[in-house]
Amino acid sequence: MKRNVLYWGATGLVAIEALAAGLSYVMNASGAIENFQHVGYPQQLRILLGYAKLAGAIVLLVPGLPTLKEWAYAGFTFMWIAAFVAHSVAGDGAVTYLPIVLLGFLATSYVTRSANRRSSASAIAPAISTTAFGESAAR
Predict the structure, then answer these.
(1) Number of structural domains, the chain?
(2) Which of 64-68, 91-95, 119-123 comes out lowest in average pLDDT?
(3) Does any domain span residue 134?
């Protein structure tokens, strides 16, 4: 029960932030435009990240789609590491650490998710253990 509460709390916070940011990015909110200019990012990246955040939030919330969930977790991780670096370089003070806090919530969501929201290791292992010619990699 506690694990489920932790999962949904952390996932809900990640999804709310991603949905809010994604909407502000794609709807050309003046704050989003100014923030991207401030850290030196091009506006095209704002639009791309906006749609990626919206898609990632939806994937994390809906049941199933375990492989897409792995991609969403990875995408949010890369996105927030890049945001931390960008805000650090721009000298943004305390705002710099918001992506690190979000990474903490993302990590909590990742480690507390239930088995039906995980990608199956047994489905991945056969693909890794064979070469392009169908031979076993163990030989």
Answers:
(1) 1
(2) 119-123
(3) no
Phi then psi for 64, rounded to 5 degrees?
Answer: 80, -160
Position 137 in a domain? no
- Dist. CA 52–CA 58, nearest whole Å: 10
* Distance, CA of 37 to chain centre: 22
**8/109 Cα distance (integer angstroms):** 7
* DSSP string computed for 36-68: HHHHT--HHHHHHHHHHHHHHHHHHHSS--HHH
The span from the CA of 137 to the CA of 125, in Å, is 11
**Domain encompassing residue 19:** 2-129
CA distance 73 to 82: 14
Quote the tokens at residue 116: 């039906």
Alpha-carbon span 59 to 69, nearest angstrom: 6
Calculate the CA dihedral of residues 36, 37, 38, 41 and round it to 10 degrees: 60
Q: What is the DSSP letter of 115?
A: G
pTM of the model: 0.79
Report d(CA 42, CA 54) in Å as an integer: 19
